[in-house]
Amino acid sequence: MKLYQSPLSPNCQKVVALAHEVGVSLTIVNLDVFKGQAKSPEMLAKNPNGRVPVLEDGAFVLWESNAMLGYVASKADRTDLAPTAPRERADVDRWLAWSNAHFAPAVRKVAFERVVKKLAGLGAPDEAVVKAGTEEFAVVAAVLDRSLEGKDHLCGRLTIADFANVTYGAVCDSAGLALTPYRNIQRWLGRMMDRESVQRALLAAREAR
Ligand SMILES: N[C@@H](CCC(=O)N[C@@H](CS)C(=O)NCC(=O)O)C(=O)O
């Protein structure tokens, strides 16, 4: 399988981490999204959204990182990570949707202003956006923290829901989003970041900086 990606993107890192976790081999093609490489005619033909990641498995092309998590887990026959029983599946789907709709947008808002702009030479952070993102983050982090009470993983045991959220959790520190008030998130994030699969994905990202 081939993954078109940007190493700095949490959406790409989560797919790489899961692939390491389940032993699926990925051929990585790095694109410079700041130079518009995700929006070249060739890439737009693969993903009309002009974004990464894009996964190619033979003639099958898939975009949306959380869909990729389900696909990669299924290819590896890991129904423990992507369950099929209706309620277990729905629980995992809930956290995939929540990540896309709430957690990722809040973290991304602040990370873009404070981390990406610096890396890409896009000027100073817009403090109004940072403030709005930080307020959004406080709401979603409280939800995540409460949901992790008494649990090692989001759905009770390790699933793709943890992979969907971990790389956004991992970016909080460098974005200046403090996790100190959220003890359950800290414990869960520490547990996830101890996994070799996650470490390998994040190391590749750091090396690319
Ligand atoms: N919902 C999509 C979001 C993809 C996305 O926003 N990717 C960003 C990198 S994290 C991107 O390609 N940005 C480049 C651009 O918008 O030009 C997913 O989860 O795959």
Based on the coordinates given, report the CATH architecture of the largest domain: Up-down Bundle
Sketch the major β-sheet.
4 strands, mixed
- The CATH topology annotation of the largest domain reads as Glutathione S-transferase Yfyf (Class Pi), Chain A, domain 2
Question: Which structural category fits the helices and strands?
Answer: alpha+beta
Summed up, the domain count is 2
Helical coverage, percent range: 55-70%
Placed side by side, the strands forming the largest sheet appear as 2-1-3-4
Order of H and E elements: EHEHEEHHHHHH
**Strand tally, please?**
4
Query: Radius of gyration over alpha carbons?
Result: 17 Å
Model description:
The protein has eight helices and four strands; from the N terminus they run βαβαββαααααα. The chain folds into two domains: 2-75, Glutaredoxin (3-Layer(aba) Sandwich), CATH 3.40.30; 86-195, Glutathione S-transferase Yfyf (Class Pi), Chain A, domain 2 (Up-down Bundle). The model has no long low-confidence stretch (mean pLDDT 97). A hairpin with a 2-residue loop joins strand 3 (54-57) and strand 4 (60-63). Helix 6 crosses helix 7 (183-193). The chain has helices at 10-22, 41-46, 65-75, 86-120, 127-147, 160-175, 183-193, 196-208, and strands spanning 2-5, 27-30, 54-57, 60-63. It is of the alpha+beta class and 209 residues long. Glutathione binds next to helix 3. Residues 6, 9, 11, 33, 38, 50-53, 64-66, 100 line the site of glutathione.
